[in-house]
Amino acid sequence: MEIWKMMIESVLMIGLVIVLGLLAAIVVETFRRRFHNVYLEARLVFEDPNSLKKVECPYIDDPAKKYISLIIPAFNEERRLPATLNETINYLQQRSKKDQSFSYEVIIVDDGSKDGTKRVAFDYVRKYKVDNVRVILQRKNQGKGEAIRKGMLHSRGKLLLMLDADGATKVDDLEKLENQILALAKAKGQMTSDSSEGIADIPIVAFGSRAHLEKKALATRKWYRNFLMKGFHLVVLLAAGPGVRDTQCGFKMFTRAAARKLFTNLRLKRWCFDVELVYLCKYFQIPIIEISVNWSEIPGSKVSPLSILNILWELALMSMGYRTGIWSISTRAS
Asked: Where is the Glycosyltransferase 2-like domain (predicted)?
């Protein structure tokens, strides 16, 4: 009995040490990210491989110079990126031919890739010129959320769209999000004409949604991806409240004003950054429109069972950061 008692006490002691160590790690990391929303970096420059000149990087505080910016985060996407870029740029070019007022840029954020992603991305800059296609390089992998944040903060569009490098959502579906944003702005009386003039200054967000495909996804996906999907629903409910059925679709559009508020405050870098965006939208009372989009699962997903641990970690950081007031929300862009 004494031996069993000692073993139980030892296990409890080890468990207590692990829990206390984990709590300490969460507190330390939460404090470390306290000022992450203060963008202290020197202005980046874009490399023009044709002229070898450096092009100054814009910032989200600057006035919009393009109608739309498309931000594509890419980590080891050498194989899947070309098809996505071909489809995306073809759509943008065709639309700009039909509408002379339509201007665009594609920003590829290479998130510390180890393969030929950088080479592929710069091939497109050479072909389509640095005014239309730009590349941001991150020295090491920091996560999809951080890659998107970086692209958003250095874009020029009135409207800003994030989309995945795998091309899971057809790029022309951006018109669904765009039209709903414009319609809402007009319905609120914030836009009085048929043009898009002024849309950059009206904070609105549109989330592409796969909720209508959920039953089919549950039948065809691997168990851990279904677990993650259901887990994310719970995460959003606990962390940000109800209102958004699908936070994880990598197809979201922001007006420039909304992006300025959200991405200057975003702290989570990986799987839960979408949940933080929902939380921040509710804080700033930015309307979120959820719109069904065409979506198909593309082979090569980077989601794995280990992603669950990262989800729990980021959820703990978010809860600690906002509930304790360690993370303050900047309203300078309001």
From this structure: 69-194
